[in-house]
Amino acid sequence: MYTKMEARVLVVVLAAVFSVSAQTDVGEKRNIRLIDRIKSQGYPAELHQVTTNDGYVLSLHRIPHGRDASPGPRPVVFVMHGLMSASSHFVYLGPEYAIAYNLADAGYDVWMGNQRGNIYSRQHVSLNPNDSKEKLEFFDYSWEDVGTIDLPAMIDYALAFTGQEKLHYIGHSQGGTVFLVLASMNPEYSNKKIASAHLLAGVGYMENFPFAPLRRLSEFGSILYTLGNRLGIVEISFDALRRPEAQQTIEQNGLVDYCAGDEEYKAFCETIGVPYLMGDRLSLADIPDMGGSSLKQLAHFAQNIKDGLFRRWDYGPLTNLRVYRTLTPPSFDLSKITVDVTMHYSLRDILVHETDVLAMAAVMPNTKVRKIERDTFRHEEYIFAKDSKELVNDYIIEALNQF
Question: Domain range for residue 98?
Answer without folding.
Answer: 28-208+335-401
